[in-house]
Amino acid sequence: MKVLVVDDSKSIRQIQRRYLSQMGHTVVEATNGEEALKVLEENPDVELVLLDWHMPVMNGYEFLKAMRANEKWKDIKVMMVTTENQEKSVIDAIMAGANEYLMKPFDQEMLENKIRWLMEESL
Question: How far from 87 is each of 21, 44, 90, 94, CA to CA, in Å?
């Protein structure tokens, strides 16, 4: 499966890339929401987006709303992967179209379990 990792932190992207690669996934990256929209245009086979909340240029919430407004991306699963833990933010993300939420810090097992559950839900 191809996964888009969207996070302004290079170290977080590297960790997620390593975990996802070990799980057998192909990874593409973006450093903010605006860049992520371009990556989606260039990679129509992306099936999952791991999305940070706080980023410059276009944050995760803004990206999520823009992505969900485009019919061709309606089936892509989105997991927020963030330190944002305010109940209102979690609810806002789910209401905007996020399918799952994972709090930082996390380990490979947590990420793998969330992805497995999320992708099995869509079968």
Answer: 31, 32, 5, 11
